[in-house]
## 1
Amino acid sequence: MTAAKGAERYLPENRSLRSLAAAAETCQGCALFENATQTVFGHGKAEAPIMLVGEQPGDQEDRAGLPFVGPAGRLLARALGDAGIDPATTYQTNAVKHFKFTRKGGARRIHQKPSRTEVVACRPWLLAEIEALRPQVIVCLGATAAQALLGASFRVTAQRGEPLRLPAAVDVRLESEPAVVATVHPSAVLRDRSDGHVEAYRAFVDDLCSAREAGMPSAS
Ligand code: URA
Ligand code: SF4
């Protein structure tokens, strides 16, 4: 057997979100499935106009099998509300679908950043989710998501909040192009305990507002 690496060969023929989620449960496209509890696929309505892409599930997401149910998810939900976005109008997913961690002192599992190779291995799921969902706007939460879709040299700090398009190199078949807006990861806002915390939160909400506006059909 050819040692095809990555998730591609696990993709089902039927590309509905439901069928993708079922197929992803048995993905072994990279080594991350080995230590994680389960695949954490995207979650939300199939008609959601706004797609939110995080980095990877965290400890609580790994146990629950759902994205953004832990502390970062709670901050995200609050920021969405403050940006005038009903969380029910979002589909939430991650660039990488398995939790990557190291163990510290036995029980505690410490989040580890996924490698570029792991992000690339998992990307077929993300692209298939985009094709199935056909969102009006994709919000990249943090550098891992942004670089998965906008290229390895993309810098969130330089272009956060700007309405962008998917580069031609991203192979998705869509009738209408979604807007793409990159911002920081909600855990970065959560970790910011400096005097700038309020400002960091406000800037995050501002970027989500830009995403909401970018996703609205242009008034004519
Ligand atoms: N952080 C992420 O990037 N995704 C989650 O689902 C949870 C925390
Ligand atoms: Fe498959 Fe992605 Fe999990 Fe790797 S992280 S095993 S590519 S679902």
## 2
Amino acid sequence: MITMDTIIREGNPILRARAAQLTFPLKDDERQLAHDLMEFLENSQDEEIAKKYRLRAGVGLAAPQVAVSKRMTAVLVPGEEPDKPIFKHVLINPTILSESVQLAALAEGEGCLSVDRDVPGYVPRHARIKLRWFDLDGEEHVARLQNYPAIVVQHEIDHLNGILFFDHINKDNPFTAPEGTLLLE
Ligand code: ZN
């Protein structure tokens, strides 16, 4: 299973590389990786398991974060009820087909399992996206996401392109964002 020891941290050049497209059918180790990425997120959101293995809670984990430079990421945005997540998918070769002009940022800023320090500041992203991805069997999916799930997916896709969340923070004034940016509590 993936633990915090498996996850590479900023400074590792793999996090700055553009990850490679996957081809179907996926290889066995790629299917296993998809399972392991999602399992980590599930474990990290389970209070007991997280405590036992000292896992930081996460809502997304991309393959490059475990040193596999391929275009795969798991996303698990929990809902109000434990077994009804808002968005739970392993995304293979995800692409943003279109995006809103409207920007949104989390009022508290963002964090990352590969970044062990707090980097304060707004991370402006598109408030709404139309996302395409492939599942493990190569089936194509399209979904429209907005606000928090949209932000999480953009953070994860950034990982596939060698981008970290703080790259988007205004260096001089971290808590400023382009005019009209929606701040999400
Ligand atoms: Zn991250």
